Amino acid sequence: ALFAEPRHPYTHALLSAIPVPDLSLKRERLVLQGDVPSAHRPPQGCRFHTRCPHARERCREEEPPLAAADGHSVACHFWKEIEPFTSASRLTPVNERLTRLQAAFHTGGGSS
Fold first, then answer.
1. For residues 70 and 88, what is the distance between their CA atoms, to the nearest angstrom?
2. 1 within 8 A of 70, measured Cβ to Cβ
3. Which of 17, 19, 30, 79 has the most neighbouring CB atoms within 10 Å?
4. pLDDT tens figures, 38-66
5. Is 110's pLDDT higher than 80?
6. φ, ψ at 25 (rounded to 5°)
7. Helix and strand numbers, DSSP H then E, in the chain
8. What is the DSSP code string of 45-86?
9. How many other CB atoms sit within 10 Å of the CB of residue 57?
């Protein structure tokens, strides 16, 4: 369930960094902004709120409880509102010209 439909924003970002083995596709990379919190002095509330694109005031004040979600657990106040990450939904075709060039390279042929 973790890889099928993760709900936590940090898991979304981690999975978006996995390379795509198909050269004709690329994955939309979710780059986290903000400050990485101290492991020695974590912030109040959700430990991820300083980098979370979905953070709200509640995240800064309350630590989220661990909740059961679709066969796995998630610690996020707003996990029900966040669209599940699916690897296929984040894939987009690469430039058509590049795709033709790569195909020609792999077949050993030129352009037609």
1. 19
2. yes
3. 79
4. 999 999 999 999 999 999 999 999 999 99
5. no
6. -125, 155
7. 3, 4
8. S-TTTTT-TT--HHHHHSPPPPEEETTEEE--TTTTTSPPP-
9. 9
Tokens of 35: 């400050």
Tokens 């430039």, located at residue: 95
Distance CA 2, CA 104 (A): 38
pTM of model > 0.70? no
- Give the list of residues 6+ apart from residue 80 with CB closer than 8 angstroms, or none: 7, 69
Contacts of 65 (CB under 8 A, 6+ apart): 75
pLDDT number for residue 49: 96
* Burial zone of 73 (CB within 10 Å; 0-12 exposed, 13-18 middle, 19+ buried): middle
Q: Which helix (H) or strand (E) holds 99?
A: helix 96-107
Q: Which residues pair with 68 in a beta bridge?
A: 73
Write down the pLDDT at residue 58. Answer: 98
User: Which residues are CB-neighbours of 103 under 8 A, at least 6 positions away?
Assistant: none
